[in-house]
Structure prediction request, 987 residues.
Amino acid sequence: MAALALAMAAPAAAYIGPGAGFALVSSFAVIFVTAILALVFILIWPFRTIWRILRHRKKPKPLVKRLIVVGLDGQDPLLTDRFMKAGKLPNFEKLARQGSYKRLKTTFPSVSPVAWSSFSTGTHPAKHNIYDFLDRDRKTYLPILSSTRIGSVEKFLKIGKYQIPLHKPELRLMRKSKPFWTILGEHNIWSTVLRVPITFPPDRFYGAQLSAMCVPDLLGSQGTFLLYTTRPAGEKFKEGGLRVGLSTNGSRDAFETAIEGPENPFRQDAAAMTIPMKIELDRTAKRAVVDLDGESVELEPGKLSDWVKLTFSAAPGVKPSGLTRMMVTEMDEHFSLYLAPISLDPENPAMPISHPSYFATYLAKKIGPFSTLGLAEDTWALNEGITDDATFLQQTYDIDREREEMFFASMEKLKQGSLVCVFDATDRIQHMFWRYLEEGHPAARGIDDPEHKDAIEKLYEHNDALVGRVMAKLEKGDVLLVLSDHGFSSFRRGVNLNSWLQANGYLTLKEGEDGAEEWLTQVDWSKTRAYALGLTGMFLNVKGREAQGIVEPGEEVEALKAELIEKMSGLMDEEAGEVGVTEVFDTHKLYGGPYLNNAPDLLIGYKRGYRTSWDCATGVVAGPVFEDNTKAWSGDHCVDPRQVPGVIFSSHPIDSDDPALMDVAPTALRLFGVDPPAHMEGSPLFETGSFGGGAAATKEENQ
Amino acid sequence: MSAINAALRPFFDLLLYPLREAPAIVGVTLFSLLFGIVALWLVKLTSNPAKVDAAKRKVAAGLLEIRLFNDNLRIIFRAVGSILRHQAAYTGHLLVPLALMILVFLPMLAQLEFHWGRQGLAAGDSVVFKVVLEEGWESRLPTDGGEGTPRPDLALEVPDGLSLASPPVWSPAEREMAWQMQADAEGAYEVGVRLGDTTHVKTVGVTDSIRRVSPERLAASFTNQLLYPAEPSLPRDSGIEKIGLTYPTRDVWFFGWHTHWIIVVLILSIVFALILRGPMGVTI
Prediction:
């Protein structure tokens, strides 16, 4: 056909130029490729169908046509009840009336990576191996990501100052056990899984998946924002930010700098790839023009840009790219430019973020650019006071809109099977705006009449509208589950467990050190019996397990655990006159499984309003045990899990009296006629008989 | 159009003068680069990159959709429909630049066709030189006054370097007078065609280098001027439809393939435009 196109173009009189050539050749090429693709798949379709029938002779008898799961990370039952009672959540009410609304038991601990792993695998953490965001390196005691191991390239072909990597770095998902979509796939049932935490690198199964939590940014971090500023360098950002000084070069309205990207794997000195950036200010017109190697972006102070593509050059033909959003945060005496963490470009991701690999590209072509970063909403920039409430809300809702678009695009394509999508806005906005929800929150001191004091109420209304839109798209034979992985509570007071351990003789600092350095680097391990790391876990320094362990396994470990449980359960916050820790749990008594040895020895059940302090979370062994939390991150859920259950709404009545997050995976299997495997600890939420003829909600009922 | 051609002819002669002894592919490549750049510039100037990009993205999404949901015939058929729809939109978004390209490129390409599309005669070649008269010439033009079927009073004035190898042959049905003409030596000649008292001139090129050669001189009309600009048109009242001779066609060598130069321009200009669209910041 291409040859035909050329032959047709031969007569000189008919030739009208290269533009026509483009249109002609590209049209022919597209039509040609489309025809071939369609033909190939249509021709092989009967064979694939026969193959599938032969391969899955024992075809399960599904009770439903489609299972749609909408995850609203962190939607809290108490707030849901409150807003429902006020008549602000009509769609949630309707869904509850039609089917069920119940509390949903969360996991120990009640943190998203753990909870969503239990959701997907139907097991306790001891079987899926995820206990927190962070784990510790047993040799160095330094924190490592609990869900993913990202290795490095060891073998190179070296040519002068350049090198060619001879293999890809190892990338391994540490979550064990099979998620329910993999099992459904084994029975030839399609699933589309969008942004469910702890799916990086993605699972391989019959279906499509877009990874979420723990997908790094282009710099390899979990989200590093950049601030280009003329302000003299101050303290370094506590979390997730880099400050780059701008020098005026003679003019206070023109700056030349560079955006530093990831290390160049093709250079032996591992120098960072850069994109030259020029900034020109027009103070009268109140605008800044940012020139990125020829591409220019116009910015108005206080307004977030759309996605800006950043393309770095590693080697000829190797151009890792990322997406960022920019905002001029000040343009008066000083000038500051904020760049959101650089997401991997979904059209051309530098790491595997979807299954199949082109699924992310497909979504980007379908709905446009979107954030791929695990924790996409820039909570750190708001925490550090770089961005403001309005900017954070805009970022978060924009990301939510992207998610919704991909969700509905996927729902429209799903004929039979499951669709799971987790929306993170609920979690992020509650984390950052809880301070306005209750009187006297330390993080709201000095803010008299905040503009976004009703941000959480509006968020629940926003979720309600989403649920309404989903219900309107339900068809006969669909079951809709709307659920959250945990609830939420206030974070007014931080607890530095390491300070407590030090004060009580369980943790010792090196001679002359004050413990102010991060990541427990000043701890004398030869004299330390216990340490806290992560958001809820406490570890004993066990001989033979930790590199410098001193606590003998067996009786000594058990005795120490019992001693700590006794001392810390009911730990009083004398300053506030409240109990800070309700109960401490021995993980070996909570659950059992092949990965139990990787669990923290103890889990701390904080009272609502308390959480591990910022210092403790970053391994600082200094300061008071209890202190006010004054950061914008003012709500949390890392408390006693019994106090923060999630919610579950179902379009079909739930038969279980005490549903748990772990029950969703076996439920999904049962709905498609697949028996849950024996290792799954959850139980199906619905009795098989309750479906009668099969279908749950009808389209008419939902409109 | 005549005035434009009168300006373009010496311009292109001058432009191609340095390339007259080089293989045709050299000039073709240089002009392809120029066309690629001009095409991109026109697209940049007149198209809406956001709309072009959106259409392209939807086409790509459709193709990936076919691959992703290859078990579902309904989705495959809908994706095919979506691809065709968005491809049509893509072409539609480029219509304005395409129209401008026609305007800009057609006169240029028509000029180049008479440099690269034909070879000059070689010394020793023999060709048929024809003069075709307009319909109804008998009532308007002088005849030789003989008896029987009227015959036009036509004669050729051949310069040195060319010679006539046979007396003219008159075909009344075709209204055509033909001479066998011999090219004796290299040169750019003007043959006089005398019709009664009036003489019209027709160029004849005998050369082995790349020069403008004109196979036909035609009666004045817009289309003739547009497509055959190598010589001025014949005056409107000349009574002659065309004066012509046949030059051998020239093929351009392109990676072992001998083909018409315009196909090579088509391919190379697309390649150059694809390479340059990034640096020029053009969405196509």
